Amino acid sequence: MLILLSGCCPSQTSGSLYGALIGSVLAFNVADFLGRRRELIVASVLYLVGALVTALAPDLVVMVIGRFVFGIGIGLSMHAAPMYIAETAPSQIRGQLISLKEFFIVLGMVAGYTLGSLLVDTVSGWRYMYGASTPIAIVMGIGMWWLPASPRWLLLCAIQGKGTMQDLRETAICCLCRLRGEGIGDSAPEQVEEMLGELSYVGEEKEAGLAEMFQGKCLKALIIGGGLVLFQQITGQPSVLYYAASILESAGFSAASDATRVSILLGLLKLIMTGVAVVVVDRVGRRPLLLGGVSVMVISLFLLGSYYTFLDNAPVMAVVALLLYVGCYQLSFGPIGWLMISEIFPLRLRGRGLSIAVLINFGANAIVTFSFSPLKALLGSGPLFFIFGVIAIISLAFIYFIVPETKGLSLEEIEAKLL
């Protein structure tokens, strides 16, 4: 949904990033009040308004405002979407469905790059680029309006006294039946009772306070989830992509002189590898994908550091390292980071916990993006990649010793057994 534009000025892209940071902060207070479904509806409205304002903007200031509004929608949707999927999906395919979110984000990026290449010579073609996201925002809003609320959120409201227990329980049963279809048969009431019993057992009766976010189970979940999305950014993903065009061009790929074509090429690789993650995540598990993917990322970063330090006559090695890094990132940190943060937080604290994790993600992205050029000028390209490689090794140790396996467990079982 977020379309990345080639050739846009920094204020335009930073407008979206700052908006996403604000959206993440807003989600902290509104998530549990609105519920996952209504938060996504609000996000779709912000997408629509932001896209229209940007596409019709008479000057740069209005364009940046539009991008900022669009960015708030990004922050809210990146917060609510994984929660809604996690709370409504069967445990056996939860990983697959949440990873599909990342797949469609990459698909949207590839579509944006492709559309951008077609409109690059069109006068005011950027307006069509921004306007192209409006029908998707409308489809998203209509789709979320049609879908039911999260049964787990309804049950949380029930045990916290935010409605009549019997009415909310019946509504949760109806929502579960709509979500699972005929396959659920007559077991919906039984499943809702199990959820309700487990929620009561793990103590979800009280509404979460700010101080509680940094205590007990939530602190452990925050370390796991926040650590994953932090390492997702500070292992150099934005910086590696910055070098893609020059690396491919040095290896003799003529299309590399066109940044848009490079974006499409790498986007297709990311799409394929994300698709692989979608297929295998619930069979292989979260930890094996993270450990395997990040291990190859470490090797790739040290190869890139070596290339820019003393192996500049081996461009093929740099191309291989680049493709391995991009592919393995999409097999590991890309989808698994978002998957884990949607699973690991206790229900009562999930809305606020996820908002902190999303804020860490966008904040780290902003720091890496805006500090990259000064660090490159200060240290040089080679040492910078070696630093990213060392950080990736630290992230590997973090995954091995801290991150648990959640494959096949219900959200309540994750809370009871792993936190």
TrEMBL record:
Top-level taxon of origin: Eukaryota
Entries under NCBIfam families matching the protein: SP
Entries under PANTHER family matching the protein: D-XYLOSE-PROTON SYMPORTER-LIKE 2
GO biological process, alphabetically ordered: D-glucose transmembrane transport
InterPro entries named in the record: MFS_dom, MFS_sugar_transport-like, MFS_Sugar_Transporter, MFS_trans_sf, Sugar/inositol_transpt, Sugar_transporter_CS
Chief localisation class: membrane
Domain Major facilitator superfamily (MFS) profile: 1-407
CDD domains in UniProt: MFS_GLUT10_12_Class3_like
Family: Belongs to the major facilitator superfamily. Phosphate:H(+) symporter (TC 2.A.1.9) family.
Record's subcellular location: Membrane
Protein name from the UniProt record: Major facilitator superfamily (MFS) profile domain-containing protein
Cellular component annotations (GO), alphabetically ordered: cytoplasm; membrane
Topological type in the membrane: Multi-pass membrane protein
Keywords, alphabetical: Membrane, Sugar transport, Transmembrane, Transmembrane helix, Transport
UniProt entry tagged with the keyword Transmembrane: yes
Residue spans crossing the bilayer: 15-33, 40-58, 64-86, 98-116, 128-147, 221-244, 264-282, 289-310, 316-341, 353-372, 384-403
GO MF term (any one): transmembrane transporter activity
